[in-house]
Amino acid sequence: MSLPDEMEVVEIAGSGGPEVLTPARRPVPHPGAGEVLIRVAWAGVNRPDALQRAGMYAPPPGASDLPGLECAGEVVAVGEGASWRVGDMVCALLPGGGYAEYVVTPGAHCLSVPKGMCLQQAAALPETYFTVWTNVFDRGGLQAGEVFLVHGGSSGIGTTAIQLAREWGARVFTTAGSDEKCAECERLGAERAINYKTEDFGAILKDVGGADLVLDMVGGRYIPENVKLLKEDGRLVMIAFLGGPKAELNFAQVMVKRLTITGSTLRPQSDAAKADIAKSLKTNVWPLMEVGKVGPIMDQSFPLPEAAKAHARMESSAHIGKITLKVAGG
Amino acid sequence: MSLPDEMEVVEIAGSGGPEVLTPARRPVPHPGAGEVLIRVAWAGVNRPDALQRAGMYAPPPGASDLPGLECAGEVVAVGEGASWRVGDMVCALLPGGGYAEYVVTPGAHCLSVPKGMCLQQAAALPETYFTVWTNVFDRGGLQAGEVFLVHGGSSGIGTTAIQLAREWGARVFTTAGSDEKCAECERLGAERAINYKTEDFGAILKDVGGADLVLDMVGGRYIPENVKLLKEDGRLVMIAFLGGPKAELNFAQVMVKRLTITGSTLRPQSDAAKADIAKSLKTNVWPLMEVGKVGPIMDQSFPLPEAAKAHARMESSAHIGKITLKVAGG
């Protein structure tokens, strides 16, 4: 099979609002040792793409400067030692470069498209499932029967966290910004979705005795609220700061309740760490996916050249679930 | 052997400065199921005793209202199911009540007096060794080769943490308030003791690439400094707040460096949790103690009725290592 020399991409021309996302042409990349080249059918859109576009989140050394951290498509070339074959259909976590017709990524960061799932859905999986797995289960240590609070319940991260925590037997509480979003969160398995515009999540969690684990992407004034509502031996895991990263805290609560405050970002982690998460997902989550117990919640999709519209929608927070870009006939 | 009905104790008459510590007489307690009665030879003096005396740290439900969290002495009566015999010489973590001629405590919170160690030294072990073990190794996960910073290096906690971390193969850094205290910390195995009155510990740790683990009992303005000097995947464990518990923090550092901020206090933990720590100490630390590789650093001692003088010395911070009270002919 012959590959073209050039491909269509969307690049970040300067930095700023969605309008800096600009269609362009680039050379098709070549897979190095351990890597695969994927012909992208669909690409997922994520918050870090918008931070990178705004100039606030530089790609790690060696990564493509193109945005895009996940995709689904067909393996069309395989580097030495990568354990996939040309023709395999995969979804993949990417170091960057997903807003393009072709992308390279380590083979160990790819997973098979789950049986029964279309490529559009598969493209919406990697970034949120890798993030939720490593933060809620590895880092946060969620156990059956525990009380779990996830903020931003209607986001890609939120809809994934609700489903996985429910499958693991946790009691799930969540916050969202409208009654419509709250209804969707409860449909997905939240025991109680809290409209943060009209209700006090701290008081509601206190009423059930507090939370064992909080997954937060808001920060700001939520940080002291989260710490206050945690039970003894509770954990707070922070994965973004849409409300700002600074807060004053009385750390005596951390000591007296033996809390753990931690967090992570996915992109700068080592290839080995990401490969470990992929293995855990394959063992623990893909079987649930293939019987339809968990799956992506899909918002709107846009053609690749209209990536700016996708970012504008994400930044309006009108969406529920994942926004995707259609790249090739998927 | 017949036991007296009454005993000499030091009680907290009201709350306030060292002068509220007052000699008194109380009934000798009786051991319940799983408990032992110890004739106290020596009792250790600790910071939480002073907080309790000042009215800032109430004893947990069911505990003696007398101060004193550790002692060494002879087992003189054994409750049903406790695995000690009358005549055994033990050192013990206490729920309270150590400033007395007799005290009861769960048998599972006692350890044999290490071979070659006198009762005065043994009385100085439990509170700091239980605290350091659970916070530095269980909670903080210190590994060989890691960079470890412990504040208050010349305190009972500090001198214990320096020795154990050195034995575990960590690179130990510490802070103390005089050149004399710093010299003692380096003699105990610190690679570098930092006089916090004349030197900048943050800058010195940055020069060696940062710390993997910080054990802090200062808090206040140290909290943001600690977070700043931690490496990726670093841990901050907080066990007291001599400088106050409040701080403003940029939590983006926690996320980007994948830090863990945690802490604990020993006294409110369950009997089972304390028994687990005792088992770990018996296996991991008592053998080192019995060959003289680690041991208590002794400051001054005072007769039990002069407990007020012991507290005044501790609160002056003039001491290096542990202050003890002589209760009976030990």
Automatic annotation (TrEMBL), chains A, B:
Keyword ATP-binding belongs to the record: no
InterPro entries: ADH-like_C, ADH-like_N, ER, GroES-like_sf, NAD(P)-bd_dom_sf, Quinone_OxRdtase_PIG3
GO molecular-function term, one example from the UniProt record: 3-oxoacyl-[acyl-carrier-protein] synthase activity
Boundaries of every Enoyl reductase (ER) domain copy: 16-325
SUPFAM superfamilies xref list: GroES-like (SSF50129), NAD(P)-binding Rossmann-fold domains (SSF51735)
EC annotation from Swiss-Prot or TrEMBL: 2.3.1.41
Keywords: Acyltransferase, NADP, Oxidoreductase, Transferase
Protein name (record): Phthiocerol/phenolphthiocerol synthesis polyketide synthase type I PpsC
Upper classification of the organism: Bacteria, Pseudomonadati, Pseudomonadota, Alphaproteobacteria, Rhodobacterales
Gene this protein is translated from: ppsC
